[in-house]
């Protein structure tokens, strides 16, 4: 078995990055709407600026190098770069093509995408299309890495409906730090159904990656395993920024790109967010959500209508998830700066999904237990069904085309977890013995599991044959070993 130390020891040291080390998470509250304030002074030795003094960028949309027939081809170099995350400071980051925040790839169902990834780092990497139904050779398995100075072409057939997906590094034991330092990007898959709806489009359809970070006094990203002091909230790579909007509807594609932090998001004026989609695409119907909860890796598309606010209004997206409110309670300010025509609308019915009662009959029911050491040891371990990840072991074998029910339980008393299955989108049947709520009735690939909680999932393995993994998507936990292999045959 390849161990954490044997794989990491030389690679990270040679690259000038700190070795992985131990820690856990923290507790929260909301804030009212505010008038536009002047910028305040910065604290001594604190490079993080006051809230809402930097603008949130919109991620760069990549253009294909070529588009021939039904194939779009892209080329990216995974490399070191610097980014101005904090004003006036060049922060070292890891990037896809020099982009921080990560770039956006637009794709369409039924049209193939080829991405040639060049590794210009001093360590091995692999690229996982999170939520993608892809053959195992292009899945980005944690052990299917490619070496420095080499390249790998990932082939995405896009044989699935529309969804807001993302891609990120998945090299085992290194995935947590690599993603933390910037190796993630957005992959927006669309189809005729989604395009036919009058939802906000173009410049009014904005991907937003939320995450946390900790900076040292030089403004550099500081990383240790399970660090509970990542208290600077970033939206599209900027600390608690503002985003100028028109007085009309916007679609925001929210991704929790954190390693560990759970977000509980709400608007400062008390109005609900209108959730229209989750991990695997549109919900059947829009849902008014007073507080939107996202664990790491989860996505939710929401529509916010700013037309009810006058020009000059500031609306704040707040967080009541774990952490001290004065540190992590403010996420992003929306500043209404102009009026605009708005031909968009949110239909009462977005798509048709098979009712839970009509899903294919499960051939097998499995029990999956997530756990980790909570005894304060300096090098905590993560487990699935009592075993750490072993890349030479197949933990679960499923029949191609079959449906199964998986009962996923978090047996820890304090530590939250979540659960991500590669290859497939699943349906959440129950949470804590009760039917799934309206925001979890759509297609999902990542689901939170709180201490002592069990979620019941329905999964159909009809994509591809091969070996894939399932794991906690709190990436520090998967790096500790909370991951397992399933084989579809």
TrEMBL record:
Coiled coil: none annotated. Residues 78-191, 236-313, 379-489 form the Plastocyanin-like domain. SUPFAM superfamilies: Cupredoxins. Pfam families: Cu-oxidase, Cu-oxidase_2, Cu-oxidase_3. InterPro entries: Cu-oxidase-like_N, Cu-oxidase_2nd, Cu-oxidase_C, Cu-oxidase_fam, Cu_oxidase_Cu_BS, Cupredoxin, TAT_signal. It is an enzyme of class 1 (oxidoreductase). CDD domains: CuRO_3_CueO_FtsP (cd13890). The keyword GTP-binding does not apply. One of its GO terms (molecular function) is copper ion binding. Its EC number is 1.16.3.4. This is Multicopper oxidase CueO.
């Amino acid at each position: 078995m390849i161990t954490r130390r044997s794989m990491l020891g030389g690679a990270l040291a040679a690259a000038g990055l700190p070795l992985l080390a131990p820690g856990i998470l923290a507790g929260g509250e909301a804030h009212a709407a505010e008038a536009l304030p002047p910028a305040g002074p910065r604290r001594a030795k604190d490079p993080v600026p006051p809230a809402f003094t930097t603008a949130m960028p919109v991620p760069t949309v990549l253009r294909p190098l070529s588009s021939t027939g039904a194939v779009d081809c892209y080329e990216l170099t995974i490399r070191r770069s610097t980014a101005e995350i904090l004003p006036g400071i060049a922060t070292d980051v890891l990037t896809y093509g020099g982009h921080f925040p990560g770039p956006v790839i637009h794709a369409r169902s039924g049209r193939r995408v080829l991405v040639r990834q060049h590794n210009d780092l001093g360590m091995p990497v692999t690229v996982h299309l999170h939520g993608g139904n892809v053959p195992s050779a292009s899945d980005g398995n944690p052990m299917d890495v490619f070496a420095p100075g080499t390249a790998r072409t990932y082939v995405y057939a896009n044989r699935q409906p529309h969804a807001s997906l993302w891609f990120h590094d998945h090299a085992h034991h290194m995935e947590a730090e690599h993603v933390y330092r910037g190796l993630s990007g957005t992959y927006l898959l669309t189809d005729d159904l989604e395009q036919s709806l009058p939802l906000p489009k173009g410049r009014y359809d904005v991907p937003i990656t939320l995450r946390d970070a900790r900076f040292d006094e030089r403004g550099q990203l500081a990383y240790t395993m399970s660090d509970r002091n990542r208290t600077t909230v970033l939206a599209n790579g900027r600390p608690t920024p503002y985003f100028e909007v028109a007085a009309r509807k916007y679609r925001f594609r929210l991704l929790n790109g954190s390693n560990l932090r759970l977000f509980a998001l709400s608007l400062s004026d008390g109005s609900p967010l209108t959730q229209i989609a989750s991990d695997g695409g549109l919900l059947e119907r829009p849902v008014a959500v007073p507080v939107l909860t996202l664990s790491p890796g989860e996505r939710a598309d929401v529509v916010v209508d700013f037309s009810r606010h006058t020009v000059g209004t500031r609306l704040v997206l707040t967080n009541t998830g774990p952490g001290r409110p004065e540190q992590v309670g403010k996420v992003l300010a929306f500043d209404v700066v102009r009026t605009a025509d708005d031909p968009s609308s949110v239909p009462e019915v977005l798509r048709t999904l098979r009712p839970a009662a009509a899903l294919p009959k499960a051939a097998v029911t499995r029990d999956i237990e997530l756990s980790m050491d909570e005894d304060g040891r300096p090098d905590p371990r993560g487990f699935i069904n009592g075993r750490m990840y072993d890349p030479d072991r197949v933990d679960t074998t499923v029949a191609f085309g079959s449906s199964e029910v998986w009962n996923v339980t978090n047996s820890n008393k304090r530590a939250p977890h979540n659960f991500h299955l590669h290859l497939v989108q699943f349906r959440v049947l129950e949470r804590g013995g009760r039917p799934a709520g309206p925001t979890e009735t759509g297609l999902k690939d990542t689901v939170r599991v709180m201490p002592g909680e069990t979620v019941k999932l329905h999964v159909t393995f009809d994509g591809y044959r091969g070996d894939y993994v399932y794991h906690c998507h709190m990436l520090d936990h998967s790096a500790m070993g909370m991951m397992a292999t399933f084989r579809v045959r």
